[in-house]
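Lab manual, section 2.4: Encoding a predicted structure.

Procedure: take the sequence of the chain (577 residues), apply the prediction step described in section 2.3, and record the output as structure tokens. A sample record is shown.
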Amino acid sequence: MSIVTRGVAAGAATVAIGFAVWSSGAMTSGALAAETVNPNDWPHYHRTLGGGRYSPLSQINADNVGDLNVAWVHQPGAITHGLQATPIVVDGVVYYSGSYNRVFALDGTTGKELWHYYAELDPITEQLATSPYNRGVSYGHGNVYIGTSDGRAIGLDGTTGKELWQTTLVDTKSCGCLFTSPPLVVNDKLIYGSTAGGMPGRGGGIFGVDAQSGSQLWHFEPVKEDTWGTTSHGLNSADYAGVGAWHVGSYDVETNTVIYGTSNPTPWFDWAPPGDGPDGYKRADGEGARPGDNLYSSSVVALDPDTGELKWYFQELPHDDWDFDSTLGEFVVMDADDKKLVMHQAKSGFVYLYDRVDGGVHNVWTINDHVTFVETVDPKTGELIGRNPPVTDPDNMFCPSMNGGRSWNSGSYNPETGIWYNGRQEICEIAVTREETPQTEPIPNWYMGADFHFVHPPGDVAHGALDAWDPLTGDKKWSVRYKYPMLSGVLSTAGEVVFAGDIQGNVHAYHADNGQQLWSFNTGSGLRGGIVTYAAGGEQYLLVPSGIGSHVFFGLAGLFPETKDFPAGASLFAFKL
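Recorded output:
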């Protein structure tokens, strides 16, 4: 849990003001740090590079949201793994991707297709567990950018969809790693994070790419070899580390810093019994699967976007015993308590507030009701207290499950009110550890180290929820309970409305003040993507990706047998008043 601090560059920006459907409000002490964004657009994965997923549009509001109707629907034509993307909208044009890296540009007022691009993928992708889904595209400099299921970065002309360049960043066959999430567009550079967690290989990580030419500029290696060791099979555990950064990070314009989370190490679970070190996680060389802290796995890393130099880091889970990662890409850059902070929702269910200048821990709290993988996390240091690692005992349960206290889709932070709206899932797990040899041929495959299944929490049943929080303190304002885990992205707006979806296919609108449901619509297949809003032609639109999919569901069927029969699909729904 060390912190590395280096020099920081400062900058400044202002918030742009758009046309009539936008309304302003007074910023609170938890305001988002300044950044220039047209309020009528959704130009980045989280709308702003500093995160938040909040829109200042208010034409659709708590008084009239019940009048929403379908404006248009577009289907990408491939439904494998559903539709997991967050659409991007710039100047009334919608850009999004479906499975198999199919990219589309649509007229935002009619849904008419302007162009499409289908990537020609290496057949090897059919052998990969993390293919063919992806979470969207990025836009910048008039171009569209995507990362592919066979390890490439691709730039497309935003007007025509013509391919401008392509660059292979990872050797998918040797590392099992690829790109499921779009890059951050930071000035004249693209920041790509690859998968790798779960696969026994090396080669993934975080990459800096020139936006104009596609040439690779730098690579951050997320494996610090001297913190690994020799396995009980006599292997160098760092060679099979499998650490990547598979979700989208954030960018702080004031300090010129990109912030990413890294994945769990492999194998997912270490079969060695707990050691004699602090909280029992220290293993010596030759014990278990991966002795040591396993830096930089399950860590937050802050990098210089121009060079890839490490500014600071914090390892949230030294020697991650639970497959929790730190890769959930919700890093919300905010100014609060007279400090420059960044909030990170970790997969463990704990929320970390860091000083974004030096990585110091400001506060830590949990969103989950059921937490047994540790006794607690020290809110001042971030240290894990009272670890409960999986062992060979078939009755040893930990909560939350490796699905996370929340899955990868992000919540929404309203800087006008200082309230954060976030999904949650309450599921526990039993993992019985066992020795396993890594499979690397013909390509790397899952490297687990345990047999596992999901279980209901003690005295409760597995469920999901949408909650409203004060992110600085962890004070809960209201909560809506769902029968199933809540997996969609969340959107909040200046119209006092919060939008979220469920895995039964319903998109819901709630009053931001109290959680009262104001509207719902069934899209026909479960919601797993990012809900966004934009304005075009003088009208505000709500954009909802529909289509169930993800590896999450292989574990849910044991708790909810009916979910295996939930209808598949892939459709992009647009609503307006």
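Check your result against the sample. Residues 1-29 have pLDDT under 50 and may be disordered.
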